[in-house]
Amino acid sequence: MTKTNLILVTPVLALLSACGIGQQQLSDFGKTADKTVQVVGTASTVTANLISQNEVTRNACRYLQGGNYTLAAAPQTKLSPLLSDQRAVVAALGAYADAIAGALDAEAQSELDAAGGALATSLGSLSQQFDTSTQTAPSLSLLLNAIVQIEENHRISAVKREMEKVLPFLNRLKALLEQDQQRALAEMDHQIAAWEDHSRCVLSASRHRANAEETFRAADKAKRALLANRKQAERAVLAMDALIDSHFQIVYGDADFEEGLKTLNVFLADLQAIKDA
Fold first, then answer.
1. How far apart are CA 172 and CA 92, in angstroms?
2. Which residues have C-beta within 8 Å of that of residue 33, sequence separation ≥ 6?
3. Which of 130, 145, 249, 260 is most deeply buried (CB count within 10 A of its CB)?
């Protein structure tokens, strides 16, 4: 999102001084929320990348074995509609977090509204993967589009109101992830297995080449990264819990954005410990 200079007008400064929330708190919260969102999208992102990588590795194996190979070959498989729609939701959720990060900028209110509307629309599309009502997307969009324009000195309150409106959608996304988590992980596992098969073929064909050890170390490092991503993908529902809890704290509790930020940071720290184990 393009950032504009923060408008330093007296009413805004007075409000920020009173509530202890400024652009830095919003920015930190939005950026950390985006990192949490990336956890939600791990299965769809990694699977999509592997689909492209696997075609290259498959042809590399054929080339090294002296067989027929293709350059710039199109992937033989496609991302499932489920993971494709999940990617769209994650992109919309990331845009929403980005909008929060710059919510005191002059043009941020309309961008935050638009991000919320995009999230509602993409979530409606994902809902259709589960044969839910086709009226989901329009009803969510209508709710978010009802946001009224406000004066600059009320932007913090506006952000909280927007977060309150987004909360039901976050809960809905969590329910959808819980419902189909195993299917998403199975699709990811299938592509990881294909990657390992093709990579082992390349390693075998490269065993007597001068850079054999370097090739092996690169493949070993890549497999370790995939295993870490797999652990992260398993935490998608917990990532939604952290996002929901942080929103709830900010909207309904006595906490401010810094308290919500702590919730997300605890989740990310716990996740990193799991990935490093």
1. 14
2. 97, 100, 243, 246, 264
3. 260
DSSP-derived secondary structure letter, 152: G
Query: What is the residue-wise DSSP string for 175-237?
Result: HHHHHHHHHHHHHHHHHHHHHHHHHHHHHHHTTTSTTHHHHHHHHHHHHHHHHHHHHHHTTHH
Q: Write the CA distances from 271 to 133, 178, 226, 234, integer angstroms.
A: 34, 18, 15, 10
- Closest by CA position to 243, among listed 261, 270, 269, 228: 261
Q: What pLDDT, in 10s, does the model give residues 132-152?
A: 443 344 334 433 443 333 344
Helix (H, G, I), strand (E, B) or coil at 39: helix
Q: Model confidence over 49-97: pLDDT tens digits? A: 999 999 999 999 999 999 999 999 888 889 999 999 999 989 888 888 8
pLDDT attached to residue 140: 42
Rounded to an integer, what distance in angstroms lies between the CA atom of residue 168 and that of residue 141?
12
Please tell me the distance from the alpha carbon of residue 248 to that of residue 202, in angstroms, as a whole number: 50
pTM for the full model? Answer: 0.76
Q: How many residues does the chain have?
A: 277
CB 154 within 8 A of CB 12: no
Alpha-carbon span 11 to 234, nearest angstrom = 45
Q: In sequence order, what are the residues at sequence separation of 6 or more whose Cβ sits closer than 8 angstroms to the Cβ of residue 45? A: 38, 87, 90
Residue carrying structure tokens 């408008």: 7
* Alpha carbon distance 25, 257 (integer Å): 6
- Tell me the pLDDT band of 27, cut-offs 50, 70 and 90: confident
